[in-house]
Amino acid sequence: MRIYISADMEGVTGLVDADDVQPGGRDYERGRLMMAEDVNAAVRGAVAAGATDIVVNDAHGPMRNLLPEALHPAARLIRGKPKQMGMLEGLTPGHDAVVCVGYHARAGTLGVLSHSFMGHEIEDIWLDGRPVGEIGLAQATAAALGVPVVALTGDDGACAETKEWDDTIATVAVKQAHDRFAAELLPDAEARRAIEETVAAALSTPPRAPGPPPDPCALTVRWQSASVAATLLGIPGVTSVDGRTVRARGALTDLYRLFGVWMRVAASLTHQQPYC
Prior knowledge:
Active site: 115
GO molecular function: metal ion binding
Binding site for Zn(2+) 2: 8, 60, 104, 134
Oligomer: single chain
Shape: globular
Largest sheet: 7 strands, mixed
């Protein structure tokens, strides 16, 4: 059984603030070790369920957060950037299941460190008219590759968003959001035990292949900056919805890759810190 783990950071046990998850933050070094512990709990669960091949993609920010020496020896690590498929780099139809660790709620919702990909530079995203964030795009893109997302960890907001998108995904709420930068935390040992047990249980029966999304799909993004939207219109296939909103249509895996290009364009035009 081949398992793919996409590891974000905002939804990791114990982390609540930008200083916990951004390089240079006063608690970042502690945060990256907490991230490794959550990932390792998921790896142990996969091993317990019989996984014979496990790859972990560091999917947060600079994508160099996980220290290779801190990772469980049963897993291989995809580290660094750029990555054409970003948070899903290395996922193929040959994988049996996806586990998402440390994920967070989308922009505009009250979850711990909630945002969609780029701090407040991205205001809203829609997939075929349905509001979506990192969770929904990961699930839908994995489904387009024929691979189910079977488990996700994060705060209670991320878990609720996951269930709204696909109620078959097992979730672990490692913290309860009180506000965007405040939460009630599960004790570390309890959170890691829950992650390990939930992943093992989710993989205990052969994962069921998901139904494919529509083809073509429509991906729509509203940017904080009209300059970003105007610049993206120079990319073939990108159309304007309004002064700050653009849209493209196509196969979802292609759109996911294209969205990564949009974010690189936006990053070159703006220098705003996330979580503002």
